[in-house]
Design goal:
- With about 300 residues, this protein is α+β, with helices and mostly antiparallel strands.
- The protein has one domain (about 75-295).
- It has helices at about 1-30, 200-205, 225, 290-295, and strands at about 75-85, 85-95, 100, 115-130, 135-145, 160-165, 170, 180, 185, 190-195, 230-235, 240-245, 255-260, 270-275, 285-290.
- Strands 1, 2, 3, 4, 5, 6, 7, 10, 11, 12, 13, 14 and 15 form a 13-stranded antiparallel sheet that branches. Strands 8-9 form a two-stranded antiparallel sheet.
- The longest helix is centred in the first third of the chain and has 28 residues, at about 1-30.
- The radius of gyration is 38 Å and the shape is elongated.
Length: about 300
């Protein structure tokens, strides 16, 4: 019985000694000056770690100078928006317009002087908006160079215009969330209507009656040669927001309202003629950002 107790105590003592030696070895192996394996991994090549609970991230925006914008499937931005952080954004649209059909305004029993144009309106269908929509003054200019459907245009492409504004210079606001008015009637689409100047837009076109100009859209001496297109833009400096314009919507067009006064007064009904914007037109949009102007690279 006594020998068995001695055996147990000896065994426990042995376990204690082994445990102490193992612990001492582990602690000694973690010391920096441990030379175990120094011939393989020298001391100057030992691993180290740095702990930090703070760091900084610096971010910045880069504007892409050249984005293709011709004949997009989606809407085109139009207007002027001033962002409190990123600055001013001005978006404009350049597009052809096409004759609804071959036409002659000269009445059968009169002459061109019997035609009285009452008004001309550029209607643009709205598919959405960005920013706080407020009144802004839109400008419409006639292009002074041809644009082509098979050509590539970018958001920075410069197009020469005749500079003269053919709009009536009105400040306009249209609610992009509610149905608008087209040709005097309420329709199920938000509409931006921009009145055009009769003398600057309608009169030169009506006076082409009898010439090949109004006989078709394409070809020599026909309408697209005579009237190359329009540029629609908004004045810089105003914070009117951006409209998203759907040029291919059936409501996007220019409508000319006129009367034939050659007959009796009771027959002087108001007629209309459309200049269409459709998939046969070349069109694109431009966007000028404040950062361009800060780099002395202003695009119009």
């Amino acid at each position: 019985m006594l020998s068995q107790r001695v055996l147990i105590k000896s065994r426990n003592f042995l376990f204690l000694v082994v445990g102490l030696l193992t612990t001492a070895f582990l602690f000694s192996s973690c010391e920096k000056d441990n030379e175990f394996g120094i011939e393989i991994n020298p001391d100057f090549d030992t691993l180290g770690a740095i702990y930090s609970d703070t760091f900084s991230i610096h971010t910045f925006s880069v504007i892409s100078d050249s984005i293709r914008t011709d004949e997009l499937n989606g809407p085109s931005p139009l207007g002027n928006y001033i962002d409190p952080v990123f600055g001013e954004v001005n978006a404009s649209i350049i597009t052809q317009i096409r004759l609804e059909q071959s036409y002659n305004f000269i009445p059968d029993n009169g002459d061109i002087n019997d035609i009285v144009v009452d008004s001309v309106v550029l209607y643009l269908a709205i598919d959405g908006y960005y920013g706080d929509i407020q009144e802004q003054e839109f400008k419409v200019e006639i292009l002074d160079e041809d644009i082509f459907k098979d050509s590539i245009y970018h958001n920075t492409t410069n197009i020469i215009t005749k500079v003269e504004d053919i709009s009536n210079g009105l400040s306009i606001e249209s609610n992009p969330l509610f149905p608008g008015y087209f040709s005097g009637g309420l329709v199920d689409k938000a509409i931006l209507g921009i009145p055009l100047n009769i003398e600057k837009f309608a009169t030169p076109i009506v006076n082409e009656s009898g010439n090949t100009t109004l006989e078709g859209n394409d070809g020599d001496n026909e309408f697209l040669t005579f009237f190359k297109g329009i540029k629609i833009s908004s004045s810089n400096g105003t914070n009117g927001g951006l409209y998203y314009i759907n040029l291919l919507n059936s409501f996007s067009r220019i409508r000319l309202f006129y009367r034939d006064t050659s007959g009796v007064t009771s027959e002087h009904d108001t007629l209309d003629f459309d200049f269409n914007i459709n998939s046969n037109c070349a069109y694109f949009h431009k966007v000028a950002h404040e950062l361009y102007r800060n780099r002395n690279r202003k695009y119009c």
